[in-house]
Amino acid sequence: MSILVIGLHVLIAIFFAVHAIRSRQQVPWLLILFMIPLLGALLYYVGVYLPGWRRERRDRKSAAGAAQAFDPVRALHDAQAAFDFAPTAHNQMRLANAQLQAGDAEAAAATFGAFLQGAFANDPDIRLGAARATLACGRHAEAIAHLEDLRRADPDYRPEQTTLLLARALAGVGRPADARAEFEAAVKRHGSFEAKAEFAIWAAQAREFQLAHRLQNQLHSTMDRWDRHTHAMNLPLIRRLEAAFAEVPRHR
């Protein structure tokens, strides 16, 4: 009986030792596992194995949630069903955002536009949504009007997003100097990856190649430190960036 118990302890120690090697734990764990198999296995389980298992489980759930969030067709279907069942303001807002996320900018612009005709005409979230939708439709002057209304009503409302959208809309109506000033203001004030990426996209399209390459180098330096989840979250913007730089001459 004692031999079976000892054998079981050794098998448990071997199991955790294999885990320690694969997960690149420190060498002393191997010594502890084999010098005191039962106590060593217990310490390893509590100190390394269990926390790692919980972390992996949490990461899997996070990845699954992100995958669902990145399914615009399903999100649109769910939003439409919710709105059809209960056409509340919340569900209408959800539907408009889902339409925009799914690439139906015209439908999103119409849904946001209907909002602006009623009691929510002064709601900044809806005004910003209308600006995003009309910009996606190529109706740049209309987007500018929405964004300028936002700034007049509340200059501190989502300043980075408002500035970047306004910069893109100004570029769309052929006002490059004004567009550049807005991009520069966004980068100076916020310095985010999104601000630099949008500025780089504009620079590439405006044939400001020296500026485009300088920003591109900064963006690559940031992306080199990302994990896969962060990269996936920013994938739509990265694809726009890559498309803009497809026609840019290589930096020498």
Automatic annotation (TrEMBL):
Record-annotated membrane-spanning stretches: 30-50
Keyword Transcription regulation: no
Keywords: Membrane, Transmembrane, Transmembrane helix
One Pfam match: TPR_19
Keyword ATP-binding: no
Descriptive protein name: Tetratricopeptide repeat protein
